[in-house]
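Loading example: each entry is read as two labelled lines plus one structure line.
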Amino acid sequence: MSKLENILSQQVKSAVKELYGMEADDKMIQLQKTRPEFEGNITLVVFPFVKAARKAPAQVASEIGAWLVNDKIVNDKIVNKFNAVQGFLNLTIADSFWLEQLQSIVSEPINDKIVNDKIINKLMMVEYSSPNTNKPLHLGHVRNNLLGWSIAKIQEANGWKVVKTNIVNDRGIHICKSMLAWLKFGNGETPESSGKKGDHLIGDYYVRFDKEYRKQVAELMANGMDEENAKKEAPLMKEAQAMLLKWEQGDKQVRDLWAKMNSWVYAGFDETYRMMGVSFDKIYYESNTYLEGKSEVEKGLAAGQFYRREDGSVWADLTKDGLDEKLLLRADGTSVYMTQDIGTAKLRYQDFPIDKMVYVVGNEQEYHFKVLSILLDRLGFPFGKELVHFSYGMVELPNGKMKSREGTVVDADDLMAQMIADAKQIYLQKNDQSQITNNQSPMTNDQCDEVARMVGLGALKYFILKVDPRKNMLFNPEESIDFNGNTGPFIQYTYARIQSVLRKSNSKAVQLPTAQRSNSASGLNAKELALIQRLCDYPSVVRQAGDEFSPAVICNYAYALACDFNSFYHDYSILNEPDEAVRALRLTLAATVAKTILHAMNLLGIELPERM
RNA sequence: GGUCCGGUAGCUCAGUUGGAUAGAGCAACAGCCUUCUAAGCUGUGGGUCGGGGGUUCGAAUCCCCCCCGGAUCACCA
């Protein structure tokens, strides 16, 4: 709740008590922004009071309005005017109040303001990204990475200590397939010899395996075998499984090859992460955690929390929790996904005093995390019961889901490169035009590339983050991502404009006009006022984004703020304003908008160019 | 079949602790650069908020039924 809402809430409570003898609770105080078609800044919905008042809504609104304007309580009088429309009481707040608010925003660092009343000295671990090492990252991973990064930033802004982590799925049949295909068809190809990024190189062999494998299956079926058997009996599959077994046994040759090929993949991932602007405080590898998981399960078995079937497999009975029975160890003693996640949790808890664990994983795994939560709780992990599965929606293409093997994936590296190239081209076009109409000096090619990088990635990131994370979203590769309208570049542009004005203003410290002076005839205009009001909302927006785990909330706010500013910028001059006090106010306002945009975009992982 | 999520303008999306005539962007059309960056600003057209019932001063928002789409219910991850 903002300061304004706080004050008004108290005053309204006093008003209805005095007027109608009614004790109002917080729920009944419904305040909302006044719709633009009515005069006023903030609106009280008075319907909750009409029953007690036993009067028509409009009359109740008028009475409360009059009471607020003539507030007899010693509080600062902040309501200047009111008008009543049916059950809606529109209040106009004094300029002096808004100026005080602006002053306090200017003097207090944004983050302190948000965290201030809600200091949490607790540790949150955020797991995100979590790639397999058999193929490069695609658009689905991009959404995951951007959400994970942003959520970590947002929770930090809300006072959490955050550890970002990644669990790399570096072992298993999938990587054996790539290894095998590389051995058979690779002729010793390396990232250096081919000029390919390591993750792409490995991905190519994963695809190659699938192609050759399908050929074998088709052949077997042509010779009369049924499909199910053909899939089992295909020599390539048998070889891959044999390789996996050797890996588990620690066979030196297989392990060496595995280490070599994974190192290529990691070099490739590092590049992608760097370009995307994400990083991790601690990376875990499943090859290190799955054994830990096994021993945890064995312990649980000994403690009677799990049970063993005749074939030797180990299960958890979750029927009391309304779920099924869940396999934890196969009959041959090998581990499954769940086992590994338990092991990973164990190691993490040894490494960090985790108060809250957040898994950024797609919504297709909701069942898995429901089960994991119960299992971790049973095994005594304090964060297990309350673990957060930050379950986000899929990125879909016009024809449906992305599928690696069918070649319908949008590659992360390609997409980022394309966005940056588009941004550069747009910049060059704009620059040609703007040479004629404004006196900006052209950028060097390096500066231009840097701006294109920020803007291209800004467009991509905003495009993904502005969608409610819980929902599936659509990406159409045929249509390029916009750079106009409700986009990242729009917000970056707004920022760059402000920076340009500030550069030209030459004034480092600007003195705000005093409340008295601007309470005179030359008070705040509607656009200035809307901006201040919007700026006041920011702390509660950040809190909401944290509570809801939603970077989209930040996007919506940043867009609204940029819209407000652009409209103001269009209607009023800042530097050419003759009244010194007004000029100072506008400069302060512009600088504060820029600071807020910078803070908000930082929460989204979007960089801002000083000019564009 | 059970469970969960979604269905809002031609397209992509906001808006759900119940509030005024449901909002943006894109696309279309019409204006605005000798003036702080036109990646901008202003305007026009565009809607049975999937359908039907209910709750009440008031429902896109809450409840029930139905239709459509997706996910999931693996000795895959």
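The longest strand of chain A covers residues 161-168.
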